[in-house]
Amino acid sequence: MKKLISWAIVAFLFMQICWAAPAFAGDAASGAKIFSARCASCHAGGKNIVNAQKTLSKVDLEKYDMFDLEKIKTQVTNGKGAMPSFKALLKPEQIEDVATYVLDSAEKGWKK
Q1: Which of 16, 77, 82, 100 could make an SS bond with 24 (beta carbons 3.0 to 4.6 A apart)?
Q2: Which PROSITE patterns does this entry report, sorted A to Z (predicted)?
Q3: Per the confidence metrics, is the pTM higher than 0.85?
């Protein structure tokens, strides 16, 4: 019986680790403020007014292989297509905060 309980506890802990929300490096609260000031005009609520098919939803970020902190930081830094570069407007740590906020918000379905 003790062995069964031990295995159940190990299985439970394993599932908690595997299904835990990913941890991101930056400060999402700071990123939210920056996003609101610099990004929300095109990406309010995770949408995309320039290309409605490429939203910031988790599904779309994964579809376009962008659900990744480094890839989002690169796009914010350098721009791409109609998206401008923010490297002259934001410090690297601010870009990391915005990317963290985007990933965190996408994970939560852009619901507060």
Answers
A1: 100
A2: CYTC
A3: no
